[in-house]
Amino acid sequence: MKSIILILLVFLAMGCDSTISKDGNNATLNIKQKELIMADITPKVTGIGGIFFHSKNPKETSAWYGKNLGLAIDEYGSPFEYRNANNPEEINYFRWSPFDDTTEYFAPSKKEFMINYRVQNIEGLVKKLKENGVTIVDTIEEFEYGKFVHIMDPEGNKIELWEPVDSVFTKMGGPTTK
């Protein structure tokens, strides 16, 4: 009982209400706490947005993954659909894409892959990265489905940063891997 009272006091000190389950043991997040989480605009990575890799024949590779592993394949590879952990009503997307071996999209990296990270506050993140001496490959580009910029890590990997607008993909519809 003392631990429940202590939990309540901590939540109240944080300016949040708390809901206790019927068994009296578990404190759960309420609407105010969820709003605090959703209002966070700290420049940072929030997840993985895609995995891109070289392939001798991207169409055949995609077809193989579709046939053998059940990926929903479209002209760019496979879109994966999942729920946002902080906002379960929101659908998020992840892109799996084989690229032709001759692509220059991964340049200046010599690696055969590139990872796309989902980010929030891309402008703030680029400012922070510049202050930290990170190599910024290009400028932020904006599309209907989000903002993009590319950076290099210390190992020579090109990284794609994406501030997504997931609702565009939801409206487009189409098969997704779930």
Protein model, in words:
This protein is α+β, with helices and mostly antiparallel strands and 178 residues long. 28% of the residues lie in helices and 36% in strands. Strands 3, 4, 5, 6, 7, 8, 9 and 10 form an eight-stranded mixed sheet that branches. Strands 1-2 form a two-stranded antiparallel ribbon. The protein is flat, with a radius of gyration of 21 Å.
Summarize this entry quickly.
This protein is of the alpha+beta class.
Q: How confident is the prediction overall: mean pLDDT? A: 85
Largest sheet geometry: 8 strands, mixed
Rounded to an integer in angstroms, the radius of gyration calculated over CA atoms is 21 Å
Our count of domains comes out at 2
Unreliable segments (pLDDT under 50, ≥5 consecutive)?
A: 1-23
Per CATH, the architecture of the largest domain is Roll
Output the CATH homologous superfamily of the largest domain.
2,3-Dihydroxybiphenyl 1,2-Dioxygenase, domain 1
- Shape summary: flat
What letter string, H or E per element, gives the SSE order?
A: HEEHEHEEEHEEEEH
State the distance separating the first and last CA atoms. Answer: 42 Å
CATH class of the largest domain: Alpha Beta
Q: Strand pairing plus helix content: what structural class?
A: alpha+beta
Helix content: 25-40%
SSE layout and pairing:
Elements: H1 2-13, E1 19-20, E2 27-28, H2 31-38, E3 44-55, H3 58-69, E4 78-84, E5 87-100, E6 113-120, H4 122-131, E7 135-136, E8 141-143, E9 146-152, E10 158-164, H5 166-172
Parallel strand pairs: 3-5, 6-10
Antiparallel strand pairs: 1-2, 3-6, 4-5, 7-9, 8-9, 9-10
